[in-house]
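To start, an entry.
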Amino acid sequence: MQIDHEVERSEARWARQELGDLLDDAEAGRTESRDTRRANLLDRIAQEADRVASADDRRASAGDRSASAADREQAVIDVEEASSRRDAPE
C-alpha cells in the first residue's frame, strides 16, 4: 500500500512536471509567434515609410525641375529686357 502511494505521488509529480513543460513550450511558442508578427509589422511599417520618402523625393525633384525651368524662363526674360534696354535709343 505504501509503495502504491509512493508510485502515485511520483506519477503525479511527473505529470505536473510534464504539464509545466507543455505550458512553458506553449508560452514560448506564443511569444515567438508574437515576436514574429511584431517584426513583420515593423518591417511593413518601415517599407511604407520608405515608399513615402521615395514619393516625397520624387515630388521634390519635380519641384526642383519646375523651379529650374522657371529660373531659365526668367533668365531669358531678363536677358531680353536687358537687350532691349541697350538697343533702345536714349
Notes: Residues 2-87 form the longest helix (86 residues). The chain has a mean pLDDT of 87. Helices lie at 2-87. The CA atoms of residues 10 and 42 lie 47 Å apart.
